[in-house]
Design goal:
about 675 residues, alpha/beta, seven-stranded mixed β-sheet, about 20% strand
Length: about 675
């Protein structure tokens, strides 16, 4: 019983923290209905509403009529009928015939490897012409003025992504209890007031309303990265936040109204397709862990009632207060929030029903298409996102600018190359104020910042980094000048594709798509670790700072067996690898989309993708490129020779140089096959 009482006391503290979280949300998260709608000084931007609809014949017309009654002055509605079989297509066509602002796109077939709704969103956003886009569901009813308020708020607060929870209506008492449980769980999970803070990991997306700036969306990997993500709205919010977009969550009560489900049975059936994936990531072990935790929090206070009725009463009081605070804030009946204890059990029922059906059927069926369980697991993007990725550390550049880094040692390597050795601007390459630079393989943005500082803040840089967790730091580091220094959350290649990268969390600069190169590098560095340690000791003793010289002397005096063991351990640690799904696009396509007619320097450092990126420029666009600096990695001189021949054939004068590590070439350390070659090309 002592253990029960102790655990109940812990649960009581957690319940108090939950109440504090909801109260903090109520205090710090704006209610859109209570905000003004300032008219932008430059006029209202063009706004596209993208509405995916599948078998929505009963709800589509009233939802669309509310949208078309809006007084937003520069509006289009892109209605995507996703293989409907119930008359939705006819309703959509009738709406388009009656209002020129409506365009209907009929999806007849679903490409392999896509969830239907995500594909419909992809089709709709591609067709949209607005500078801003609202993604909304086909059953959401809008109060007049909602669009002006939302767009005005986003412009005034300089937000790139705004999402809102609607006012939920309809249903009986059981459904309202389930609503309260669901809403409270969302508010406790997302820490909504932290979402606008770029330094916080908090993010969310609510599919009923997501307003996004097209320019910011184009910096992301796009819907193709989310093509099999069952929590597509949350994943879009995650993708926007990680791309460096300024995001915010609002309370949409009074502006958006939704009868989400007609009954609790319908809610359980509706959530069956995605709740197992959203909560348990399609893993039985995680399902058991989540259920055991929530069940213990629900039941242990009851077990303590006989010995400590005060603890039990306090628990139920805190739980009821938490639910009531969340419910009333979103205009749900307070009575449904008071029953949060029961609402949580209803959510657990929905979770287990979802898991049972998914495991029984070996997958899910959504919009008439069956998806196997393995494909759903592989397609997850949200799973573990809040805690994944390398931890950020603060680092000072020579200019005094503070940036966030994964590894201070990596940052020191880059500073040495750029601030002390000139980096990529050598062998006749020059940069002048006003230069346009492409940074392929931007990592955390040190080269981009060097260019900006080198040119006195008079440069435009397009920085590409496909690994989401590294890109998150890149976007933060460039956030001081986002109009000039743009961070894109995808890599460059010769065609549009999604592929896994071998990501090194302890040495992110080594991340590559080339597995053979990765293994060769690891083996050569391991064999040469003793010589590398000796050279590093000598190199450090020649440096300017006393700390580096002392470190060099310490390394030089280590017993050789111990030194070799330490060096081999360091190589093994740096070689730790994870598979990360990333998106890649051709540079030529991106330049066309952005309307860029010249590139003063194309810098490429992508650990094996150099030729793909060069080929992705496209022959017709090569006259726009004035200088190229790239590092060819990992397969000896033949790959460097191919890059040189490629550039010379397009009119460049090319110089090459063996890259150094700790003051000597890789070849001198015994890493002949891994020797990187710097290639510097300029037009005559």
């Amino acid at each position: 019983m002592i253990a029960v009482l102790a655990l109940t006391a812990i649960i009581l503290v957690m319940s108090a923290a939950s109440l504090a979280t909801v109260l903090r949300t109520r205090r710090d998260v704006p209610v859109l209905a209570e905000t003004a709608a300032p008219t932008p000084a430059t006029g209202w931007p063009r706004l596209s509403i993208v509405v995916p609809a599948c078998n929505e014949v009963d709800s589509l017309r009233p939802a669309m009529q509310s949208l078309l009654a809006e007084d937003y002055p520069n509006l289009e509605v892109v209605l995507v009928d996703d293989r409907s079989t119930d008359g939705t297509a006819a309703v959509a066509d009738a709406l388009a015939a009656g209002d020129a602002r409506v365009r209907v796109l009929h999806v007849e077939t679903l490409p392999a490897g896509w969830l239907g709704k995500v594909h419909a969103l992809h089709v709709g956003v591609q067709a949209a012409t607005g500078d801003w886009i609202v993604i909304t569901d086909a059953d959401v009813v809008y109060a007049r003025g909602t669009l002006r308020k939302a767009v005005g708020y986003a412009l005034e607060r300089r937000r790139d992504f705004v999402t809102m929870w609607p006012e939920l209506t309809g249903g009986g008492p059981v459904l309202r209890l389930a609503y309260a449980g669901f809403v409270t769980a969302v508010l406790l999970t997302i820490r909504a007031w932290e979402i606008p803070d770029a330094k916080k990991a908090a993010w969310t997306g609510i599919g009923h309303f997501m307003l996004l700036r097209r320019e910011a969306f184009e910096r992301t990997a796009g819907f193709s990265w989310l093509r099999m993500e069952v929590v597509d709205d949350g994943a879009l919010g995650l993708m926007m936040k990680r791309s460096g977009a300024s995001c915010e969550f609002l309370n949409g009560a009074g502006q958006l109204r939704l009868t989400w489900y007609p009954s609790f049975r319908a809610m359980a059936d509706g959530l069956a397709k995605n709740m197992y994936g959203a909560v348990a990531h399609y893993r039985v072990a995680r399902l058991v862990q989540v259920s055991a935790f929530l069940g213990a929090c629900q039941l242990l206070p009851l077990a303590a009632a006989a010995s400590a009725p005060g603890l039990t009463a306090a628990y139920f009081a805190l739980t009821a207060a938490t639910g009531a605070a969340a419910a009333s804030w979103l205009r749900l009946p307070i009575s449904s929030g008071l029953g949060l204890w029961l609402g949580t059990w209803l959510q657990l029922y929905c979770l287990w029903l979802s898991a049972y059906r998914c495991l029984r059927d070996g997958g899910i069926t959504w919009r008439g298409t069956r998806y196997p369980l393995a494909a759903m697991r592989a397609g997850l993007r949200v799973a573990g996102a809040a805690t994944s990725g390398p931890a950020a550390k603060s680092f000072s550049l020579p200019s005094g600018r503070e940036i966030e880094v994964v590894s201070a040692d990596e940052a020191r390597i880059l500073v040495q190359e750029l601030w002390r050795e000139g980096g990529y601007v050598r062998h006749g390459l020059r940069l002048e104020p006003g230069a346009v630079v492409v940074d392929a393989g931007a990592n955390i943005g040190v080269f981009t910042i060097w260019v900006d500082e080198h040119l006195g803040g008079n440069a435009r840089v397009l920085a590409f980094e496909p690994v989401a967790d590294v890109h998150r730091l890149l976007a933060r580091n460039l956030s001081y000048a986002p109009e000039r220094l743009r961070a894109f959350a995808f890599g460059l290649s010769d065609h549009d594709e999604n592929q896994e990268i071998r990501f090194h969390p302890r040495m992110t600069l080594w991340s590559t798509r080339d597995g053979t190169m990765d293994e060769t590098r690891r083996d050569e560095l391991r064999r040469s670790s003793g010589r590398m340690l000796t050279q590093l000791a000598a190199h450090l003793q020649e440096q300017a700072t006393w700390s580096e010289r002392i470190a060099g002397k310490v390394l030089a005096r280590l017993p050789r067996p111990l030194g070799r063991r330490l060096a081999a351990g360091a190589v093994a640690s740096m070689s730790e690898v994870q598979s990360v799904a990333c998106r890649f696009r051709p540079l030529g396509t991106v330049l066309d989309e952005l309307g860029i007619d010249r590139v003063d320097l194309l810098k490429i450092d992508t650990e094996g993708d150099e030729l793909r990126i060069l080929q992705g420029v496209g022959e017709a666009r090569w006259p726009r490129i004035r200088q190229v600096a790239l590092e060819v990695d990992g397969s000896g001189p033949e790959r460097a020779g191919a890059a040189v021949a490629f550039l010379e054939a397009r009119g460049f004068r090319v110089a090459t140089e063996a890259q150094l590590i700790v003051g000597v070439t890789y070849a001198e350390l015994g890493c002949q096959r891994h020797q990187p070659i710097g290639v510097y090309a300029r037009r005559e």
